[in-house]
Design brief:
It contains 13 helices and 13 strands. The strands form three sheets. A seven-stranded mixed beta sheet has the order 2-8-7-6-5-3-4, with helices on both faces. A four-stranded antiparallel beta sheet has the order 9-10-13-12, with no helix packed on it. A two-stranded parallel sheet has the order 1-11. Helix 2 runs antiparallel to helix 10, helix 3 runs parallel beside helix 10 and helix 11 packs parallel to helix 13. The protein starts with 5 loop residues before the first helix and ends in an 8-residue tail after the last helix.
Length: about 375
């Protein structure tokens, strides 16, 4: 189950247009130059795309400071997850939950056993709290032992930060501890950074910087969400060149079409765009949290986030009535019932422009199940 299914929404609610808060896509559209690059690229659709996406990989190499031979691109992060798992064929994987369902689907496609690591609605803050509550005199040893037990027998660990669906961040020192332990026990890490670009400056540090000394680390990066091109699909994986060579054997060579290649290059070359988007989203997020507090929704709880989406917990009842009410009002939100490991009743909402967030607040106020009135 994913957000962004507008065809199904039209059939379900009988409307032609929606405010779609069910998918975590940058609401401000791609960089202006992308539209021109798509027009230019139309001349190339009569030819096969470059199977190596060499021009795009060179642009990624330059802008993200990674050697060209450590980069592989694909038809979105989802395709790359399946490609990597098919290449590695892990026997047992560890997955922190709740999280993106494609990790487990990919693992099960190769018959892997799943070891769940419960995070709950706090996301990575759960492990921050474990540190604070630890009674051990040696906190680092305590956490080492915790992760050794969690990863017992695993040969692949999925990590996602910023974390979907909680919007939490795995802190640098905790990641480094996990990185060291997985290296020692021979467990690879697939680290999903699909929402990295949405983070404020003080939290935005990619794990790509650790690749040189850690051949067991694989980093996943998405251009789809931040650059607002979900219909084109474009993702990237970074890893040691021996791993990349292995992954290439399992990849569809034609998966990245010519328009996606053109759009990706142009988007990355617009150096002003990322900061402009982050500032707009910061303002929208601040507005939404402030107005939610002022609304005094006694049976709704808005959880904290660092990125462009947030969890809302519906207290003491199932979320379907609220989802239906919002849908009939032309607002789509994500039902989190399909997120394993998320106890309680949650919806996830994307953070979009201030006008849209105002519409959401009005929709929540108009919900008959709300006791704020």
């Amino acid at each position: 189950m994913h957000g962004g299914n507008l065809r199904r929404a039209k059939e379900l609610y009988g409307l032609e247009s929606f405010i779609d808060l069910s998918a975590n896509i940058n609401p401000f559209g791609p960089p202006d130059g992308v539209w021109a690059s798509l027009q230019k690229g139309m001349a190339d659709i009569v030819n096969y795309p470059d199977p190596e996406s060499l021009a795009l990989r060179r642009t990624l190499s330059s802008h993200l400071e990674q050697p060209n031979e450590t980069i592989m691109v694909g038809n979105g992060a989802g395709e790359l997850i399946f490609t990597i798992v098919q290449a590695l064929k892990p026997k047992k994987v560890a997955i922190p939950i709740p999280t993106f369902s494609e990790y487990e689907r990919a693992a099960r496609s190769v018959g892997a056993e799943i070891n769940y690591i419960p995070l709950g609605p706090r996301g990575w803050a759960t492990f921050n709290r474990m540190d604070e509550e630890s009674n051990s005199s040696d906190e680092e040893s305590y956490n080492d032992q915790t992760w050794i037990e969690l990863l017992n027998g695993c040969d692949l660990l999925f990590l996602c930060s910023p974390h979907n669906p909680t919007g939490s961040v795995l802190e640098k020192d905790k990641f480094e501890r996990i990185l060291r332990l997985t290296k020692a026990i021979g467990c690879r890490i697939l680290f999903d950074e699909s929402f990295l670009d949405f983070l404020p400056d003080e939290y935005r540090q990619s794990t790509r910087g650790y690749l040189g000394d850690n051949q067991h680390l694989i980093v996943l990066y998405s251009l789809t969400k931040f650059y607002s091109i979900p219909g084109l699909r474009l993702g990237t994986v970074f890893a040691h060149q021996t791993l990349i060579s292995n992954f290439e054997q399992y990849r569809d060579p034609w998966s990245v079409n010519v328009l996606a290649q053109h759009a990706g290059i142009t988007a990355l070359e617009d150096l002003r765009y990322p900061d402009e988007v982050r500032e707009k989203l910061r303002e929208s997020r601040a507005y939404f949290y402030r107005e939610f507090d002022l609304g005094k929704f006694s049976n709704l709880k808005l959880w904290p986030t660092f990125v462009n989406f947030a969890l809302i917990e519906i207290l003491n009842q199932a979320p379907e009535e609220l989802i239906e009410h919002l849908g009939r009002s032309g607002i789509l939100v994500r039902n989190c019932a399909s997120f394993a490991g998320l106890p309680g009743n949650f919806i996830r909402v994307a953070i979009k422009d201030i006008f849209v967030m105002q519409r959401l607040i009005e929709g929540l106020k108009g919900w008959s199940g709300s006791t704020n009135r």
